[in-house]
């Protein structure tokens, strides 16, 4: 198991290695808390009515066309994105599967608890609070090191298969998703721009504070089987004996 980069607090692990790496008593609760906060932060941005993240613009646009809740559509979109991992030969972890369901449930609960403020100042505060909470939530669930979210896995899988940079692939995916969502009636505004500019630095700032450190476990060297000594030949008889 090797670290993803010398300065990164995350470790590059396969799905089974993630579970075998230990500290699950902290990592699983941290994963669930991070995903729940992620869904609630989405609800905060949605209730601010000042613009959403690209994938949420798509979800809102679909929710205007389908008789389903925002959270239910979030689950369905996540499941569809996860199916796209199959041809990319991506392997989901526990956190990937949990992401599909927990975020959708949390965003519906958040929408039931929050209302759009009547004052623009309060809308801005709700937007900023949602953005900061989203960055923290992303760091918390990624820091549990139990697998990426469906959308992150799609990005990394496409980048690996196409040879493109992660930034280019992510930008391409989000432009397409944002465009479809906008055409469906999703909310694009200042919050969309702030999210695009701010979410990366916020997550990077929080990640070292919340990431669970996992020590690499060197693989024990294989012990070679002892060789069987060759049988000694009988001493040659003395001629004429």
TrEMBL record:
Keyword Transmembrane helix found: yes
Organism: Friedmanniella luteola
Highest taxon, organism lineage: Bacteria
Disordered as annotated region, ranges: 220-241
Annotated Pfam families: DUF6198
PANTHER family in alphabetical order: INTEGRAL MEMBRANE PROTEIN, INTEGRAL MEMBRANE PROTEIN-RELATED
UniProt entry tagged with the keyword ATP-binding: no
Residues annotated as transmembrane: 28-46, 66-86, 93-114, 120-141, 175-197
Record's signal peptide: none
Keywords, ordered alphabetically: Membrane, Transmembrane, Transmembrane helix
Protein name as catalogued: Uncharacterized membrane protein YczE
Organism ancestry: Bacteria, Bacillati, Actinomycetota, Actinomycetes, Propionibacteriales
